[in-house]
Amino acid sequence: MMSNDPVTMVAALLAVMGVAMVIWLLIAAGLRECAASCLCLAGANALQALALVVRWLPESQWRTPGLIADVLLLGAFAMLHLSVPLMDDKPTRWPLLASALALLAALLTQLPTGPHHAAHHLVVNGAGGLFCFFAARNTVRLLRDRELRPALSRIFGLPFLVIGGLLLVRPLATLWMPDVPASLDTRGAFNIAWLWAALVMTLTVNGTLAFLLMLKLVLQIRRLTLRDPLTDALNRRAMAEAMAAEHQRVRRGHTYAVVLLDMDRFKQLNDTLGHAAGDEALKTLVEVLRPCLREVDLLGRLGGEEFCALLPYTGVAGAALVAERMRQLLETTDFRWQGRSWPLSASFGITESAPSDEDPTEVLRRADEALYRAKAQGRNLVQAVEAIDQPAQPPRPQSASGQGDPVAS
Ligand SMILES: Nc1nc2c(ncn2[C@@H]2O[C@H](COP(=O)(O)OP(=O)(O)OP(=O)(O)O)[C@@H](O)[C@H]2O)c(=O)[nH]1
């Protein structure tokens, strides 16, 4: 049986907001991750509940309760909007937001009051709708940053878009339908429908954000199990899984290439500049090399100062071009540590998959052999080893270092 009593509906709304606030506070206390975001959401629920209570107070000649309720509601929307980027520890623009709120509050004090307060609703719900649209955009961005299908990130943004649109319905209805009451405590079909919508919106917003937080944590855990914490490149396990998956396609006639690279004289760098400088050099290497790769390519750290790039649908000729570009980029990188410059370089071993390869370890073994040759021939070189059953010779790009042909099989 649906309630048509505004007092019951408001009580239900307050109960939902109160429970949501307590839950967000408990999560913030128990979970150091995303604590700021959870506190923001607890604050948003508290402000919204307070706005509802204040709106119930009798109007004075200064219209103070209504004005305070509007400002509280604006604060709630602002906190809701902030909670999404805070889940990702993104910097927040507090001063900008505070200034916007102060400006809106000042505008509200200047608006004429009428029996239906349509202008007030327009400002409050319009700003609320805008904050919801921002929340939708931030949700899509939050999930786009993580390895998730884009369609799913849009689905998560959808509730905020719908709520943003719904928020505009009330002021527009108050403007166009003179019999729609501005005050919430009036019995009437529109008011009851609106209170039901507010209840559903509150549940949807809290539910969506709880799910978003859970998804964010799951993706973070997944990321930790697959990524190298120092460089953020894929770890050995993730690379092994990716290579195994890629190798499945070899039987269907596809070819993939592997570029194995190892920093040159890294021990010397560590011994001279210190371990922290070595760590920084590894991070720099990944930052420098990433732009050389396509979206489908993968870069992983196999251990120490050894990395591997997996290039799907690529032969040894293509891999030679990529590796040579990487070699040159690294060679020309101006690496500095505490004001001291240090030359970076790496040796590269490349190969491509062959139908005769039983598993990816055979491909890696050839790449390792090529890398060994590059090291043996003086470092800062690209060398290739092809499978025995590969008849064609790849085109060989010229080495810019003047140390001979970068690709030799
Ligand atoms: N800073 C830092 N050093 C590391 C890390 N992992 C391994 N190393 C160091 O990397 C060095 C590797 O040294 P070597 O295997 O002799 O290789 P290299 O000095 O680069 O010599 P070549 O490969 O022959 O040019 C060792 O000193 C390791 O301690 C790391 O995560 N951070």
From TrEMBL:
<feature type="domain" description="GGDEF">
    <location>
        <begin position="254"/>
        <end position="387"/>
    </location>
</feature>
<dbReference type="InterPro" id="IPR050469">
    <property type="entry name" value="Diguanylate_Cyclase"/>
</dbReference>
<dbReference type="InterPro" id="IPR043128">
    <property type="entry name" value="Rev_trsase/Diguanyl_cyclase"/>
</dbReference>
<keyword id="KW-0472">Membrane</keyword>
<dbReference type="InterPro" id="IPR000160">
    <property type="entry name" value="GGDEF_dom"/>
</dbReference>
<feature type="transmembrane region" description="Helical">
    <location>
        <begin position="193"/>
        <end position="219"/>
    </location>
</feature>
<feature type="region of interest" description="Disordered">
    <location>
        <begin position="386"/>
        <end position="409"/>
    </location>
</feature>
<dbReference type="Pfam" id="PF00990">
    <property type="entry name" value="GGDEF"/>
</dbReference>
<feature type="transmembrane region" description="Helical">
    <location>
        <begin position="94"/>
        <end position="112"/>
    </location>
</feature>
<feature type="transmembrane region" description="Helical">
    <location>
        <begin position="34"/>
        <end position="56"/>
    </location>
</feature>
<dbReference type="InterPro" id="IPR029787">
    <property type="entry name" value="Nucleotide_cyclase"/>
</dbReference>
<feature type="transmembrane region" description="Helical">
    <location>
        <begin position="6"/>
        <end position="27"/>
    </location>
</feature>
<feature type="compositionally biased region" description="Low complexity">
    <location>
        <begin position="398"/>
        <end position="409"/>
    </location>
</feature>
<feature type="transmembrane region" description="Helical">
    <location>
        <begin position="156"/>
        <end position="173"/>
    </location>
</feature>
<feature type="transmembrane region" description="Helical">
    <location>
        <begin position="62"/>
        <end position="82"/>
    </location>
</feature>
<keyword id="KW-1133">Transmembrane helix</keyword>
<protein>
    <recommendedName>
        <fullName>diguanylate cyclase</fullName>
        <ecNumber>2.7.7.65</ecNumber>
    </recommendedName>
</protein>
<feature type="transmembrane region" description="Helical">
    <location>
        <begin position="118"/>
        <end position="136"/>
    </location>
</feature>
<keyword id="KW-0812">Transmembrane</keyword>
